[in-house]
Specification:
This is Acyl-CoA/acyl-ACP dehydrogenase. InterPro entries: AcylCo_DH-like_C (IPR036250), AcylCo_DH/oxidase_C (IPR009075), AcylCoA_DH/ox_N (IPR013786), AcylCoA_DH/ox_N_sf (IPR037069), AcylCoA_DH/oxidase_NM_dom_sf (IPR009100). Keywords: FAD, Flavoprotein, Oxidoreductase. It comes from Amycolatopsis acididurans. By secondary structure, the protein is an alpha+beta fold. It has 3 domains: about 90 residues, Butyryl-Coa Dehydrogenase, subunit A, domain 1, CATH 1.10.540; about 80 residues, Butyryl-CoA Dehydrogenase, subunit A, domain 2; about 150 residues, Up-down Bundle (Butyryl-CoA Dehydrogenase, subunit A, domain 3), CATH 1.20.140.
Length: about 325
């Protein structure tokens, strides 16, 4: 992210250093990243999504394998939207210190509550296999959206094989599972669920921004040392133009993602539109930039050892996760009819 101040620059530098090594869940907890948006009275930092976005971008840059998307973006974001209560507060505090990994099983249609039991199915749930607690968005008997917290062991969780090996997603199934509690949203339930989906879309756009930045940096560095015909390939006009196109796409992505992060952090009325703009453009641009990076690396770019395939696959999965580009553009177009 840009334009958020010196504090974000320091957070970005620390994140880049930490993610350059082996960043286990305990290290993320010690760094305070899991509790960035957790209220201070629950041992969190009391920060906003703007700070989480900085971490997300650096995770994309490092192609980090963590449960941050499920636990912090979805888990903490959902818990913060609920009415305060003992169970909800305890789970927020446990998430902040890393002792519990939550995630949210957003399904379409959502889960349903019948009596004291909940049933339903959700696919592509981030970090479902790693989660200890899964929050099920469900409709109660009156059709009102609520959240049902369930221990992961009580649900069916099957890992889904996807193109991106740096991310873990799964299918979550509830077959008349006992609902120990029902947590209600602090505000309008339908609007709260939309905000959670928008958070997830912007989070993936932040990740794609980091992927694109990493691929541009690596390509420029390679073009400066790789020689053909006795000169660096970066001196050739075709390579210069390709890198310039990548830089323009990255700059446009950054502007859209920055605007979306501000809207989400400020709970802006136009956050949904900003999220769709950022998700549709930045995720598509990351795929194009990673693909161009592979081409400009020549034969080595297509090898397993180069590692570029990891970024290309991550970018491709980001493009499909939490709404396709076509779906988000359709959503934007609907505002004009």
């Amino acid at each position: 992210m840009t334009g958020f101040g010196d504090g974000h620059d320091e957070l970005r530098a620390v994140a880049r250093d930490l993610l350059a090594g082996t960043a286990g869940w305990d290290k993320l907890a010690q760094a305070g990243w899991l509790g960035l948006e957790v209220p201070e009275e629950l041992d969190g930092a009391g920060a906003t999504f703007a700070e989480v976005a900085v971490v997300l971008e650096e995770m994309g840059r490092a192609a980090a394998c963590t449960a941050y998307l499920g636990a912090v973006v979805l888990g903490v974001g959902t818990l913060n939207a609920l009415k305060p209560g003992r169970g909800r507060d305890e789970l927020l505090a446990a998430t902040a210190d890393g002792s519990v990994v939550p995630t949210v099983a957003i399904g379409d249609p959502p889960f349903r509550i019948e009596g004291s039991r909940v049933s339903g199915r959700a696919e592509f749930v981030p970090d479902a296999a790693e989660a200890g607690r899964i929050l099920l968005p469900a409709l109660d008997q009156t059709g009102t959206p609520v959240i049902v917290p369930v221990d992961a062991g009580a649900l069916g969780c099957v890992r889904q094989e996807v193109l991106d090996t740096t991310r873990a997603v799964g299918v979550v199934t509830a077959d008349h599972v006992e609902a120990p509690e029902v947590w209600r949203f602090a505000g309008d339930p339908a609007a709260a669920l939309r905000r959670i989906s928008d958070r997830a879309a912007v989070a993936v756009a932040c990740d794609s921004l980091g992927v694109a930045a990493a691929m541009l940096d690596r390509t420029v560095a390679y073009a400066g040392v790789r020689e053909q015909f006795g000169r660096p390939i970066g001196s050739f006009q075709a390579v210069k133009h390709a890198c310039a196109d990548m830089m323009v796409k990255l700059a446009m992505s950054r502007q859209l993602v920055d605007a979306a992060c501000r809207a989400i952090a400020g709970d802006d009325d136009e956050a949904g539109a900003a999220a769709s703009m950022a998700k549709s453009y930045a995720c598509g641009a990351a795929v194009e930039i990673a693909g161009k990076a592979m081409q400009l690396h020549g034969g080595i770019g297509y090898t397993w050892e180069s590692g570029i395939h990891v970024y290309l696959k991550r970018a491709a999965f980001n493009r499909a996760l939490f709404g396709s580009a076509a779906g988000h553009r359709k959503r934007l177009a609907a505002r004009y009819f």
